[in-house]
């Protein structure tokens, strides 16, 4: 299935609709299969020892899957997360960005399901894996 | 099971160990069955329309369950969330604090499981429900 | 919110629509807040040591929440589980029935969310806790 | 990481330890990355319309991830599922086997995390996706 929003369009969407986290997040790569979102943590997102906090990884996962949906259906600002599951498997390295690679498992009329793998750049180790469901408003 | 940390001790723990979110969060009530944590959202935690974002509710749930564990076992700064599930059921009211009431479903030697109900004050409607598992380091 | 199906009506629904598991399951109690379903395990549902298997507890949770929805909206045979989370906390006693007490966290037009606590009779220890989301077909 | 149990060894393990479901399940393929388990549903696992029930897909997911762990660490009959999340995305075709392809996201000393994709043979559509955590007893 083709994308209807490319990397630049997704970047603009973050800048406009997620203003409060726009400085943290940038779109790293967009393909037909996935959207990879990058998070550059600042001090507010760290835990003792310099690792990134769980809620910050949740934020990365949530926005990454959201963008993977928008890439297919366009800028639907009102899609909402209905539930989320996240497994935290390894501590992120201190002072290193995170990459969240999101792909869709289902894109239905009213529900979409996506998953995301979170890694540090230049590492294969999966730090966290999340799956989330979004409700898509009927107006599209 | 009796508590080993009371409201004041949990407040101090947040101030010292969760410095980056300490201004957002305050301990509302501590009983033998539950710890209720309050989140006063600022502009950084809002979504268009004034509702609190999903990742902010995740943060409230994560810290509330963490404190419910610490109330029983004392200040173990290194307990980590191993996985989390959250259902988002209703949008929070705009400009209103959130209360997360956390209770433990299991407190084992190495794993603890807790759940949290998130509400607005003076409302019975459950906005979100989360269950999370924490790994407790062996040294305690 | 009042019930539109009582214990006898839910029992009949199981007998007709869940024929393949009807012998295992019986409705123990129905209140306005919850439906409690009982599972009497036979040898096919046991693991070594006589405890009930995880998938069997999942079955109990799934049907209990389903019935808690039907108690409110009537016999909608086509509601489907869209996702489920279950925490297994303690091993069930061998050779003892299980009770699953299900309550609804949300009953919307198209999505319902419920949770269930699984216990042995005459024990307070929670063996497993599940939360599940159901999609309700638009025709009701 | 190399396997310590191959397809034949995993088949024998099912026959001995999961006797009650052994007739339903067979090991379809074992690689270093994944274990694929096949479920041939009989009438007891169907819902009206001939689709396989949710609890039956949960059973397939649970055993598939369990075998993916055993393939790496050997026959540890006492590993237990501590929690599980499953998204049901599409209805299985009636009268058709299911394949569950399980891979590990983490294999730690005391916890292992795996995921599974459930499909019908000769189809790319993912019917369900699950992630599960297992506690591994310390004696190995």
Give me some keywords for this one.
140 residues; homotetramer; Thiol Ester Dehydrase, Chain A; 22% helix
Output the structural class of chain A: alpha+beta
Largest interface: A-B, 25 and 25 residues
- The separation of the N and C termini of chain A measures 17 Å
Sketch the topology of chain A as an H/E string, one letter per element: HEEHEEEE
Radius of gyration of chain A: 14 Å
Shape of chain A: globular
CATH A-level architecture of chain A: Roll
Number of helices of chain A: 2
**Spatial strand order of the main sheet of chain A:** 1-2-4-5-6-3
CATH superfamily of chain A: Hotdog Thioesterase
Q: Under CATH, the topology of chain A is which?
A: Thiol Ester Dehydrase, Chain A
Which oligomeric state applies?
homotetramer
Provide the domain count of chain A. 1
Show unreliable segments of chain A. Answer: none
CATH class of chain A: Alpha Beta
Strand percentage of chain A, roughly?
A: 25-35%
Helix content of chain A: 10-25%
Q: How would a crystallographer describe the biggest sheet of chain A?
A: 6 strands, antiparallel
Mean pLDDT of chain A: 90
Kindly state the number of beta strands of chain A: 6
Overview of the molecule:
The structure is a homotetramer of 140-residue chains. Helices cover 22% and strands 34% of the residues of chain A. By secondary structure, chain A is of the alpha+beta class. Chain A has one domain (7-135): Thiol Ester Dehydrase, Chain A. Chain A has a 6-stranded antiparallel sheet with strand order 1-2-4-5-6-3. In chain A, β5 (111-119) and β6 form a beta hairpin. The longest helix of chain A is centred in the middle third of the chain and has 20 residues, at 54-73. The radius of gyration of chain A is 14 Å and the shape is globular.
């Amino acid at each position: 299935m083709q994308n209807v929003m490319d990397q630049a369009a997704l970047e603009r969407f973050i800048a406009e609709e997620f203003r409060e986290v726009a400085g943290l997040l940038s779109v790293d790569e967009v393909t037909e299969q996935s959207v990879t979102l990058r998070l550059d943590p600042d001090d507010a997102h760290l835990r003792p020892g310099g690792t990134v906090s769980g809620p910050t990884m949740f934020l990365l996962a949530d926005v990454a899957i959201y963008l993977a949906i928008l890439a297919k259906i366009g800028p639907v600002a009102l899609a909402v997360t209905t539930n989320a599951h996240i497994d935290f498997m390894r501590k992120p390295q201190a002072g290193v960005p995170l990459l969240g690679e999101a792909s869709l498992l289902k894109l239905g009329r009213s529900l979409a399901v996506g998953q995301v793998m979170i890694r540090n750049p230049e590492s294969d180790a999966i730090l966290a894996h999340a799956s989330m469901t979004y409700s898509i408003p009927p107006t599209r």
